[in-house]
Design brief:
The chain is an alpha/beta fold. Helices cover 30% and strands 22% of the residues. Helix 5 packs across helix 7. The two termini are 32 Å apart. 45% of the residues are buried. The N terminus is likely disordered. It catalyses: (2R)-3-phosphoglycerate + NAD(+) = 3-phosphooxypyruvate + NADH + H(+). One of its GO terms (cellular component) is chloroplast stroma.
């Protein structure tokens, strides 16, 4: 076999995801670009026809005026679901905020005319993305315009809790004058932990530094150089909890961050800490926060977001004396609303013109025959990306990624854009709230400073199967699982499709064979009898089903890597017991 070419997607802008190498990748490489697909652009307006845009919720005037330069604009607010379904068949685009539910019924009622849905804001929980994609409708959002507004609101709540502003205001309005009761604390010299060092988090840090605070931040994938540039130290989650006087939350809501602030986390914070949340309600276990407030572990909390919005009237957290609340006002400034209106109007107009929107959150149409052939490889590449990024130790940045495709097909017979997008998706989505697809993969990677290089290896044999194996390598990073580092010094995972299903076939330099379903435990062990049985017994006691297991070793009696596929997630106690087995040298649990 021979390496014939490599395509370098040199993407390097500084944002939240960064990487650095031990060895250098070539700054330029040559790879024939795949043939352009005529089906890539799926949005087109009939020649000479002026499209109709339905705006179902209040939008800033600047955005409305921009839309009117290109389309007929119908501003119809407070539509019932039935009224929306009736109107939508006459519209080419729909713009909503958070109050309009764009359900499957809406897309079905559009009868194929609706080409783009624009969400004026970040969250898209109110749009049925799956139905949109099935009906060939692009969904775009406006993720950047409210950054400063959200950061300013975080600072407003920070200062409010430090000086008991809300409580003192209510007291005076009740006819009281309780100066001694509402003595506050100074911000100067206090430590603020910014949890999530993305756009909003970094802007909060800048402003807190101006108030004389010591600022630390926790974000396993934030570039250390960007933090240092504004005088912020990146620390572990544990250090952030135990040293902060104030904690400001700015992480996305993902499976990894859901209820991250729970009883266990609150048990480790400095007594008297103050919590501010302008991110997502679900990152805090609200019952646990209530207990921490009642016990005095947390002195005060300021919340702009809640698990359920609006929260029930009987919500004890909202009514707590030491909690300051606002009704999700993070983006609610005149300037932010105008910015969001312009951003979403530009995205919708661009999509109606047939341009690929950088803020798209779902994929364009892909030819059925191509999707059918690549479908199992799409799943494989995404899961390899997810595995690889989870193997990166906290604090290590991810900047250089190399994807190798081994195939008997010629360069012109295999379009890898979809596969590349899925690797990017797997690398970024587990640690971000963004949605990555064929439309926005390169844009999102560029935002996060990700430099992805593709390499093609031509194999002898029949080209009937599109790919023999796919390998993903992350360079110059530390690993949670040392055995995942190959001889080249990179985190390396490799997989192939077997019987239509993705399989992991290599970790580091160890050959393995496990179906990529559910979750995975990787164990490095001394190669000796009985280890598989011990691990199996621990998992069976927890009613965790093992769906696949394999062991790869260097040589008999030497080191081996055991790979275990699980249907359920084991408890921390079970994982701890596995780690306590004498022959187990290291292990890691990975979610797929």
């Amino acid at each position: 076999m021979s390496v014939i070419s490599s395509w370098n997607l040199t993407i390097s802008l500084n944002t939240t995801l960064s990487l650095s190498w031990r060895s250098s990748l070539p700054s330029r490489a040559i790879f024939p670009r795949p043939k352009k697909s005529k089906t890539l652009v799926v949005l087109a307006i009939a020649l000479g026809a002026k499209p109709t845009v339905l705006v179902s919720e209040k939008l800033g005037d600047a955005g409305i005026q921009l839309l009117k330069t290109f389309a007929n604009v119908d501003c119809s607010y407070n539509l019932s679901p039935e009224e929306l379904c009736t109107k939508i068949s006459l519209c080419d685009a729909l713009i909503v905020r958070s109050g309009t539910k764009v359900t499957r019924e809406v897309f079905e009622s559009a009868m194929g005319r609706l080409k783009v849905v624009g969400r004026a804001g970040v969250g898209i929980d109110n749009v049925d993305i799956s139905a949109a994609t099935e009906h060939g409708c692009l969904v775009v959002n406006a993720p950047t315009a409210n950054t400063i507004a959200a950061a300013e609101h975080g600072i407003a709540l920070l200062t409010a809790v430090s000086r008991n502003v809300a409580q003192a205001d209510a007291s005076v309005k009740a006819g009281k004058w309780e100066r001694n009761k509402y003595v506050g604390v100074s911000l100067v010299g206090k430590t603020l932990a910014v949890m999530g060092f993305g756009k909003v988090g970094s802007e909060v840090a800048r402003r807190a530094k101006g108030l004389g605070m010591q600022v630390i931040a926790h974000d396993p994938y934030a570039p250390a150089d960007r933090a240092r540039a504004i005088g912020v130290e990146l620390v572990s989650f544990e250090e952030a909890l135990t040293t902060a006087d104030f904690i400001s939350l700015h992480m996305p809501l993902t499976p990894a961050t859901s209820k991250m602030f729970n009883d266990e986390a609150f048990s480790r914070v400095k007594k008297g800490v103050r919590i501010i949340n302008v991110a997502r309600g679900g990152v805090i276990d609200e019952e646990a926060l209530l207990r921490a407030l009642d016990s005095g572990i947390v002195a005060q909390a300021a919340l702009d977001v809640f698990t359920e919005e609006p929260p029930p009237q009987e919500n004890k957290l909202v009514r707590h004396e030491n909690v300051t609340v606002t009704p999700h006002l993070g983006a609610s400034t005149t300037e932010a609303q105008e910015g969001v209106a312009l951003e979403i109007a530009e995205a919708v107009v661009g999509a109606l013109k047939g341009e690929l929107a950088a803020t798209a959150v779902n994929a364009p149409m892909v030819p059925a025959e191509v999707l059918l052939e690549l479908s199992p490889y799409v799943a494989l590449t995404e899961k390899l990306g997810r595995l690889a990024v989870q193997l990166v130790a906290g604090g290590s940045g991810v900047k250089f990624v190399k994807v190798t495709y081994a195939s008997a097909r010629g360069p012109d017979d295999l379009d890898t854009r979809l596969l590349r997008a899925m690797v990017t998706k797997g690398l970024i989505e587990p640690i971000s709230s963004v949605f990555v697809n064929l439309v926005n993969a390169d844009f999102i990677g560029k935002q996060r400073g990700l430099r992805l290089t593709e390499e093609r290896i031509v194999l002898d044999g029949s080209p009937e199967k599109p790919l023999e194996f796919i390998q993903v390598r992350i360079a110059n990073v530390e690993s949670k699982f040392a055995s995942a580092i190959s001889n080249s010094g990179e985190i390396t995972v490799e997989g192939r499709v077997k019987d239509g299903k993705p399989h992991l076939t290599k970790v580091g330099s160890f050959g393995v064979d496990v179906s990529l379903e559910g979750s995975i435990v990787l164990c490095r062990q001394s190669d000796q009898p009985g280890i598989i049985g011990k691990v199996g017994n621990i998992l069976s006691e927890e009613n965790v089903n093992v769906n696949f297991m394999s062991v790869g070793r260097i040589a008999p009696g030497k080191q081996a890597v055991m790979t275990i596929g699980l249907d359920e997630e084991p408890s921390r106690d079970a994982l701890k017991k596995i780690g306590e087995i004498t022959a187990v040298e290291e292990f890691v649990f990975l979610k797929l």
